[in-house]
Structure formats: structure tokens, C-alpha cells
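User: Let's play a game. I give you a shape written as C-alpha cells, and you guess the letters that built it. Ready? Here's round one.
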């Protein structure tokens, strides 16, 4: 088991980036919902087709466990917080970090 830190930017609230996980290119779409005070994650394939959308980023809860039947990264995506609180605006990548466990 190796933990890899996923690069997130606390200065951005809605952004997309590519990442290679398990030798496969994915796009991650991070969005902040002001009404819910919560970040969410959408995972897209290398052609930017949505695989799964709007997964709430909740601290210490694996994000993709219920979606293993889809063509998503095989490992676990886990948000880890320094104080066990969920990320609020501009805290994802600062107070809360996203990790991939292969």
C-alpha cells in the first residue's frame, strides 16, 4: 500500500486536471458547491467522457468504493483532514488533502 498525494489547489474552487493512476490517464473535475458548502469530484476518462459525477468529498471516507464496477482508478481515493472536518471553501489542498492508495 502506497499513498500518493493528489495535487489539489486551495486557491481554486472549480477546476479540472489530468492525472495518471494505475497507468491510466483520468481527468478529475473538482467543484465547490456554495449551497452545500462542499467540494465534489467527477472522474472522466482520457477522452473527457464522464465516468462518475458529483461524488461528495467527505473527510476520511473512501470516495470510489461504491463505484468499483465502473472503469475508475482501481485504488482508493481518500480525503484526509488535519482536524477531521470536511473541506470548506479554499481548504481542499490545504486543511484537507486528497490521496490515492494503490
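Assistant: Ready! My guess for every position:
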Amino acid at each position: 500500500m502506497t499513498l500518493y498525494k493528489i495535487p489539489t489547489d486551495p486557491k481554486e474552487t472549480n477546476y479540472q486536471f489530468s492525472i495518471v493512476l494505475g497507468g491510466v490517464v483520468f481527468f478529475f473535475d473538482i467543484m465547490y458547491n456554495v449551497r452545500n458548502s462542499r467540494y465534489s469530484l467527477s472522474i472522466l476518462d482520457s477522452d473527457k467522457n464522464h465516468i462518475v459525477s458529483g461524488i461528495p468529498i467527505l473527510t476520511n471516507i473512501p470516495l470510489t468504493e461504491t463505484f468499483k464496477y465502473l472503469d475508475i482508478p482501481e485504488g482508493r481515493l481518500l480525503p484526509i483532514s488535519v482536524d477531521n472536518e470536511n473541506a470548506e471553501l479554499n481548504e481542499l489542498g490545504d486543511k484537507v488533502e486528497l490521496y490515492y492508495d494503490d
